[in-house]
Amino acid sequence: xxxxxxxxxxxxxxxxxxxxxxxxxxxxxxxxxxxxxxxxxxxxxxxxxxxxxxxxxxxxxxxxxxxxxxxxxxxxxxxxxxxxxxxxxxxxxxxxxxxxxxxxxxxxxxxxxxxxxxxxxxxxxxxxxxxxxxxxxxxxxxxxxxxxxxxxxxxxxxxxxxxxxxxxxxxxxxxxxxxxxxxxxxxxxxxxxxxxxxxxxxxxxxxxxxxxxxxxxxxxxxxxxxxxxxxxxxxxxxxxxxxxxxxxxxxxxxxxxxxxxxxxxxxxxxxxxxxxxxxxxxxxxxxxxxxxxxxxxxxxxxxxxxxxxxxxxxxxxxxxxxxxxxxxxxxxxxxxxxxxxxxxxxxxxxxxxxxxxxxxxxxxxxxxxxxxxxxxxxxxxxxxxxxxxxxxxxxxxxxxxxxxxxxxxxxxxxxxxxxxxxxxxxxxxxxxxxxxxxxxxxxxxxxxxxxxxxxxxxxxxxxxxxxxxxxxxxxxxxxxxxxxxxxxxxxxxxxxxxxxxxxxxxxxxxxxxxxxxxxxxxxxxxxxxxxxxxxxxxxxxxxxxxxxxxxxxxxxxxxxxxxxxxxxxxxxxxxxxxxxxxxxxxxxxxxxxxxxxxxxxxxxxxxxxxxxxxxxxxxxxxxxxxxxxxxxxxxxxxxxxxxxxxxxxxxxxxxxxxxxxxxxxxxxxxxxxxxxxxxxxxxxxxxxxxxxxxxxxxxxxxxxxxxxxxxxxxxxxxxxxxxxxxxxxxxxxxxxxxxxxxxxxxxxxxxxxxxxxxxxxxxxxxxxxxxxxxxxxxxxxxxxxxxxxxxxxxxxxxxxxxxxxxxxxxxxxxxxxxxxxxxxxxxxxxxxxxxxxxxxxxxxxxxxxxxxxxxxxxxxxxxxxxxxxxxxxxxxxxxxxxxxxxxxxxxxxxxxxxxxxxxxxx
Length: 906
What we know:
Layout: H1 8-22, E1 37-41, H2 53-71, E2 75-79, E3 81-82, H3 86-99, H4 105-108, H5 110-124, H6 127-135, E4 145-146, H7 150-165, E5 169-179, E6 184-186, E7 191-208, E8 214-223, E9 234-237, E10 251-254, E11 259-265, E12 277-280, H8 286-295, H9 325-328, H10 335-348, E13 352-365, E14 373-382, H11 385-396, E15 401-403, H12 407-416, E16 421-422, E17 424-425, E18 435-437, E19 443-445, H13 449-460, E20 467-468, E21 472-473, H14 475-479, H15 482-485, H16 494-499, E22 502-508, H17 512-527, E23 532-538, E24 541-543, H18 559-566, H19 568-578, E25 585-587, H20 589-611, H21 628-649, H22 653-681, H23 687-708, H24 713-723, H25 747-769, E26 778-783, H26 787-795, H27 797-804, E27 806-812, E28 819-824, E29 827-832, H28 839-864, H29 867-872, H30 875-901, E30 902-903
Helix pairs in contact: 1-24, 11-12, 11-17, 18-19, 19-20, 19-22, 20-22, 21-22, 21-23, 21-25, 22-23, 23-24, 28-30
Binding site for ATP: 551
Protein name: Valine--tRNA ligase
Catalytic activity: tRNA(Val) + L-valine + ATP = L-valyl-tRNA(Val) + AMP + diphosphate
């Protein structure tokens, strides 16, 4: 006997244990040796992480695909694993050392610190894997990988060595995003642009002649970074800016440093911004660095690794420059303090023209929280241009496609303009770069130290002392190899041969550049194959109001909390139902609660079936059903299976969920079971009809379990086990076949029962729209109908009276006066409402509602048509306005439908 209520926590634990015991999710099961393979690699979550709502969405969508394909008979490998997450993990461990009052990283030294990191990883680094299992992720957990596993580390080293030998990896001095707190280069992805209220300082730079003598002229520059002016090596003006034409080619004397620098013409300078003249500091600004390259300017660092000013002992003063004594006191000052001092020094010399408030985006480290510096330093780079061209061609050729397709355009734009990839990080945790230097600074690249030593000794003709590069590789370098390194590459493993290239990559659109593109480039270059045939990019999950989630706002939704409150199935179905292609998801607890109610509805329907003797029969054949109601329900089930399968094949997860929901809630629970009650519970019912209906109900619950399993695996696995009692060798639902209901569509059954369903639905809708009292019984008049409709209505007469709350059903040639008219599948149905509702008052009320709704739509259209509003308003606000308009437009349509029904007949 089924429990009275569905308990997600108890069921999830029991079902999860059953999957584990059976090894249900293992790839290469013997019975599937000849099956077509299907492979998804998990975007590896950080080993430091815990399940956040983005993970929940991403992994739910992957799991739906994997369970769907597994049920379709394919040999599925969902490859799991975690990422070592360089800077994030190092930060966590360093913080832990500080909190426990242990020696810091520098005091411990590299070897001892890395022992601490590995110990932490072993102790708590796998928490997210347990949370993914709670979500129901059907990965092959026996194949779990970590980006610093021995085999994956070998793949990383080989890739570096090979790309260096091919001339694609090289060392260069360029600008990078530098985190002064962690003292390392970081990727663009780890940089947050924070809108900051700052200032724009206007400084006068004196013009000098060829001999270096002041001419009395000045050129005014505007800057947000006064402290970097000591590294200026030019002033740029637009070549078409007539204000400065005569000054191009001349020089200014840089204040405080007294270094003569040129005035150059460059299109980077915008005549409409500031004064139209900009200072060029190649070592401290990415745009200035490019200007410097175009004009052969020197790049001068005036900040050290910690963001403190450098003056004495470096090359800030050259070409005979003689710094003013006050400028020397800047040495060693923090950049923020130095900024104030530079402004004061310029003001003392009468060179500060004015200060204006200026709100602008300032880059911050997403983990350190400090302002990021563009910093000139030696780093390792990959020349990805030739790799990018292969990736672009693969997409052009259709080897890999993007869903939604518009992401392809973004992919092309970025790869077409791709810059060299900085792959070195000044960290200790990660894959240490396989480069050794001898005493003369020569580079020796090798897989091992012994190999490097041998190469160096041979090159020098004798023993050489080597020092290994202390830097590690960018985390994205190792994760770029993930689709094939997890399968054993560079070894020619059976897994690599069977599952690579993989099939679908499911990930967030925010890492299209940083991960997807790099996997494409590396996969093609190293294996000569695309790493996946389809890239499905989902949008972001926002809070219920559409705002982006953040800890500072306090609006972060915890998926584990939702699972504990509503169950994993409810959360999964919610995410799938809201995953419309290309649209961000607005998620709140109310939606999850709604789909928890959906799970409860199915459980209660199954329990109702059990209480009414509906049991599975191994000999039942749905194609042999004779009752029109049963044939209708079986046909609707066949339609649902077809719609869900087609939607999942097209990655329309929301449409798949909607089709499943419609069949289960609306068709099966609300209509089929309701219409079947007289057969299941009535007196004197034909025994054969009752037996067929009981078996059909049980059969359909089984099909529903299959249909919903990819979305709601725990509930459906439990129903499968309960309903399968007495059915020999049934096994797990996770390994059962996807429903095949081909041939069960029945046009005549759909015509008859569909008419009854539509008629009752239309009557209920009309009653609601015209405010007919809930308890009132009203007459129904069918106008000018033929004999077929009369016979059909006669067969369902009592059902229609009961479900539509009708007092009688009449057949007439004309619609009665003062009636609401409905058109149901070509049949005119009229509801005489005179004396039941005040039709005139109802029309007036609806006209008033129509006017209010039209005005509201006009107000929203005014906002969305305002270019200034669209340009300035946050994305979530604009989206909210669009959704409000859609809602109001739908409401207006319903109002006008109701008005059209309230027609007076003369």
